[in-house]
Amino acid sequence: MKLCVIIPAAGQSQRFGREDKLSHDLGGRPVLLRTVECFAKREEVTSILVAGPPDDLEAFKGRFGAALGFHGASLIAGGRVDRWETVKCALEHVPDDATHIAVHDAARPNVTDELLDRIFAAARTLSAVVPGTPMASTIKKIDPEHVVDAGEEGDVLADAILGDAGRLAVPAQLVASTEDRRVLVAAQTPQVFDRTVLMRAYSEAHLDGVTDDAEAVERLGEAVHVIEGDLGNIKITTQRDLQVLAALLRSQPKARPAGDPFGLG
């Protein structure tokens, strides 16, 4: 296996807030560099492509370029709107000798070697492999068109003068059904594909609405298989995700220095 890893990093991260989440410090290093480090020392990985924002590529290079180069990663321009556009741009730079392609979220910096061992082993046999975790909670399907305000009832006269100022609004959506969680998983990354399969999926004209690479392959009618993911493989989407992941990393045992197997140093 000769694996090219694509890391889309061109998004706006609007749900995270005004800060750049990929530059955010996580245990002494920026989030993006922690993500790249997960793959840099794997013998299966022969190339790493980080696809940054095309309209801000020089500034992005200023923040990360030297460190990415140290880890053997190449910086390229991604897309401007959707994630699939960034992946499609990156596919043009995949080396000819790559037999497999992995696509991994830039904001998933806690991929363990154990997870990579499993997914790389499966990818040697299967053409499209995705890590996934079971749904622990009861899953409700909602009606997005049916929303009511279940918050505090305001004083009619006060509302007429002040509007909704000071009143707690609680939007509530109608439950349409309860889903069978036994047949549902939460998909993670890295998602690993036979090179020809992913290239063929992204050569299709209609990719609008595709939210992950497995979906692009599914649209071909190709089989996609799920292996056991890792609950610690958290994607940082909000500030709360970053806080949870930072706490998780702090709780993990620190590596002992070489020659000190019992931690006596």
Short structural summary:
This protein has 265 residues and is α/β, with parallel strands linked by helices. The chain has helices spanning 31-40, 57-70, 83-91, 113-123, 156-162, 195-202, 213-218, 239-251, and strands at 3-8, 25-26, 29-30, 45-52, 73-77, 100-103, 128-134, 139-149, 171-179, 185-187, 191-194, 225-228. It has 2 domains: 3-134 and 184-251, Spore Coat Polysaccharide Biosynthesis Protein SpsA, Chain A (Alpha-Beta Complex); 139-181, no CATH class.
Strands, total number = 12
Q: What would you call the shape?
A: globular
Instruction: Indicate how many domains the architecture comprises.
Output: 2
Number of helices: 8
The CATH homologous superfamily of the largest domain is called: Spore Coat Polysaccharide Biosynthesis Protein SpsA, Chain A
Characterise the protein shown here.
With 265 residues, the chain is α/β, with parallel strands linked by helices. The protein has 2 domains: 3-134 and 184-251, Alpha-Beta Complex (Spore Coat Polysaccharide Biosynthesis Protein SpsA, Chain A), CATH 3.90.550; 139-181, no CATH class. It is 29% helix and 25% strand. It contains 8 helices and 12 strands. The protein has helices at 31-40, 57-70, 83-91, 113-123, 156-162, 195-202, 213-218, 239-251, and strands spanning 3-8, 25-26, 29-30, 45-52, 73-77, 100-103, 128-134, 139-149, 171-179, 185-187, 191-194, 225-228. The strands form 3 sheets. Strands 1, 4, 5, 6, 7, 10, 11 and 12 form an 8-stranded mixed beta sheet that branches. A two-stranded antiparallel sheet has the order 2-3. β4 (45-52), α2 (57-70) and β5 (73-77) form a beta-alpha-beta unit. The longest helix is centred in the first third of the chain and has 14 residues, at 57-70. It is globular. Mean pLDDT is 89; it is low at 256-265.
